[in-house]
Give the backbone structure.
Amino acid sequence: MAHNAAPTQKLRGNEWRVVGLLVPYLLEYKWRVALALACLITAKLANVGVPLIMKHVVDRLDAQTAIIAVPVALLAVYGILRFSATLFGELRDVVFVPVTQRAIRRLALGVFRHLHSLSLRFHLERQTGGMTRDIERGTRGISTMLSYLVFSILPVILEFTLVALVLLAKFDWRFAGVTFGAVIVYITFTVIVTDWRMAIRRQANELDSRANTRAIDSLLNYETVKYFGNEDFEARRYDENLRKYESAAVKNEASLGLLNIGQSLIIAAAVTALMVLAADGVVMKQFTLGDLVLVNGLLIQLYIPLNFLGMVYREIKQALLDMDRMFRLLHEHREVEDEPGALELPPGPAAVEFHHVDFHYERARQILFDVSFAIPAGHRIAVVGHSGSGKSTLARLLYRFYDVSAGAITVNGADIRQVKQAGLRAAIGIVPQDTVLFNDTILYNIRYGRPEASDEEVYEAARAAHIHDFIVTLPAGYETMVGERGLKLSGGEKQRVAIARALLKNPRILIFDEATSALDSRAEKAIQAELERIAQGRTTLVIAHRLSTVMDADQILVLSHGRIVERGTQQQLLDAQGEYARMWALQREQAEAAAVLEKTDAV
């Protein structure tokens, strides 16, 4: 899916299923969970015990029966219970923190791994800003869900049960009836209004993700924005998204105010009714003054967490929404998967064959038609053609970023759909046309080809790519930061880093996808000689636009509109006076014109 859900998109109705996904993480720390629950129960028992003690304190302070030692002892117990409620509440949190953090870590890692396992198609269609915001909110939702389910829902249920038992034991049925009735009305009102509010919250979240996507996309394309002087245009587009989010956020806060007012009205009415009943009982000598204090204390103990429960329900629903969006990523279909029982790539020098390969990204737009060719082990095959002819698609298919629509690709006779992707990709090294680097050091980016490589091996790869001498002239040397997507380096410097990275990987199969396209003619000649040297003994696929870089290939394939229209050596293709010969003549004319212009500028 393209990660750009519309603001009106609704939950699928089964968002509560994500609760079941959290159970394994609770079971992994079952003893911690049990200890946390024990602390919770102890804290709630202490909480409910406080008003019971206060009743006896007030009754013992009656002017006619006061015995000073008894209230002092009761007050001491009161203090101990107050402290115990706080103590065990904090211990509960401390004990449970590792459970929450481990769940967040494991689930976030699972999403991260799954995203890397998805096809190139998904990553070409995704919107990075919105997706990262969904993951961020989803992981935060895990913490909310675990904490509130265990430490808010369960405590309120426990406390309500204890209060109900005390009311039934100490007072008549009217007290329990009013309490139960108020709780039912309160919960019903909260659920109805919160479900209505979720549509508003959902829209606010979608618009927030959309605004974040707009901002990140604009910042990643900073140079393009500057080239066209479109800072104000980008700011207006960003502000348009922010304005929509602002409107949704205002509606969200207004609906929250309505919910809080309704909840407070229900609680105030119930408390007033119960206090009237208790006061009437005191006047009628049916209850003591301590009973009035007990009712008031119990109601405070019950309705404060009940009021909190309204917020908890809102937050749990929001957490479910956030987690649901994150878990949708986990349910994204892996377009390219290892088959059950997939084999390792056969060892030894790699021979590659394309057997009658058809391929389309979309059914209405076929890219390759009946493509067949072989690269014997240790040989170099070049593919040339105009832009859009399907050259780079061959590399993507060999890497198995996509599966072929028809036909097969084999390495050492094994269909790559039947071997493990990790083993296949480990055997291939690529220097892409568009080199994107990590926002880290030059050393890190070269070592990325083989993370366990030593510094000396990295230096050797850099020397082979003719970039070592440049790196050591930099103030920070190999520790130089390359910036976002490598933008601090020139196109040629980035390409040399990519070549060094591929060399360090030491693959059996090499792919050069316009590997020298960012280099000037002098640098290209130096690098070309080095590429030819490192390609010796390796199976090599060269994708090129400049024909001068493929003259010595064992075979040259000319691709046009997804079909191989010519094949042969350089001389054979020139003699044939076909498409390749026309391309060669055109590039020679362009090269000669450029040389004349260079001489003119020199004069």
